[in-house]
Fold:
Amino acid sequence: MIITTLITAISSVTVALISAGFFRRWQDKNKEKKSRQQLMAQIQKDELIHFTLREIRRKYNSDRVYITQFHNGGSFYTNTPMQKASVTYERNSDGLERITDRFQNILVSNYTWILKETIANRMFYKDIDQQMTDLPSKSLLKAYSNYAHAMSPIYDDSKNLIATLSLSWVFSDIPEEWIIDDNFSSEFKESFYEDSNSLRNYLV
Structure:
C-alpha cells in the first residue's frame, strides 16, 4: 500500500514536472514566434515608409527627404521629462551626406523657432539665405548646403504633433510647377501636407 502510494506520488510529480517543462517550452516558442512576427511587421512598415519617401523625393525633385519623430529622452533633476527628437527615416540623392546619425536625441528646446514655423504651416523657404530671418535656423540648414527647405507637421488622431516631414534642396532644381512669385505655391503646400499626412498611420 505504501509502495503504491509512493509510486503514485512520484508519478504525479514526474508528470507535473514534464508538463511544466512542456509548458515553458511552449511559452518560449510562442514568445519567439510573436517576436518574429513583430519584427517582420516592423520591417514591412519600414519598407513602406522608405518607398513612400523615395516617391515623395522624386515628386518634388528634392535632394533629401526625412522624418523627424518626437520622443521622451529621460528626465531633468526636477523630474520634468526631456522632450527630444530624432531623425528616423531618410532618403537622399546619390553622394549626399546622411543626417540621420547626427540628429539623434536632440533637445526640442534647441529648435523652437523651426517647430513654431512648422506648426503654423510657414516652414517653406525657396531661398533660405534671402528669406529666412532666424539666424540659428538658417545656419543649421545651410550647414548641410541646403538652399531651399520645406517642412510639414504630422499629427496623430488626437491632433498631437508626433513627427515632421522635411524636404531639402542642395543641388537639384525645384520643379517650376511648384513655384509661383519666387516662392512655393499654395498647390505645393497642399500637396506636401497631404503627403505628410499619408505617413501618419505608419508612425502611430
